[in-house]
Structures are given as C-alpha cells and as structure tokens.
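Z., the sequence and structure:
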Amino acid sequence: MDIKNVSLYASHLKKMKVKGAFVAETTGEGLFLSDNERLDVIKDWVASTENDFRVIVHTGSTSLTSAKTLAYESAKAGVDTIAIMDPPFLGPSQKGNLEEFCADVALSALHIPLNYYLMHSLSRVNVSI
C-alpha cells in the first residue's frame, strides 16, 4: 500500500461529495498489514481530512492486544469511530466471550463510538446477538 496516495484519494472523495471513509477494513488491506502499517495508514487518513469528513477505522485483529492497541492509537490520532469484528479464525464460541472481547476493545477508546459487525464468513463465530 502506498500511503502517499491517501491524501489524493481523500481529496477525490471529498470532491465527489463523499462524507467519510472506512479505513483498513476487512475486505481491503487492514488484516494484511502489520499494526504499525495500519496505524500509518490511519494517521495519514486523519491528517488528510477535515472536520466534515468522517474517518471510521477497522481495528479488529486476530489478537486482542493488537485490537486494543489499534483502537487506542486510532482514537488518539483523531478518528471518528472504530469498528471491529470478531477475531478471524479462532474467534469466541460463546456470547459472553464475544461481549468481553468487544468491551475490552471499547474500553481502549472510551471517547469515540465502537461499531461491531459480524462476519461469519471470516470468523465462523456463530452466536446470536
């Protein structure tokens, strides 16, 4: 990923009247980057946008520690919202474990909203929410 293009793409989206971007999400680059690479991309998005452009970032990870760190650092960088999904591969098998995972991540970024989304195709988590 060439983060030098983030500002160009953000400008293009704004010209097209797009109101925000979902950065480092699950169908794109997010899970294929290291935590530091993801944070570089996230920080570049925040730096490339203005107050009327929302930046939502996916901070989910196969590691709870990484998800918490990404959430904390993203909030510190100035994103509007963090989003997570359950951990891919060996995700929680019980509703209580999933709730605990989400709460732990949310507590790392208390002052911004957390969006949770379930992606059965990646995680194979099968709990009713």
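The helical segments are 6-15, 35-47, 64-77, 95-106, 120-123. The two ends are 35 Å apart (CA to CA).

Let me know what you think.
H.
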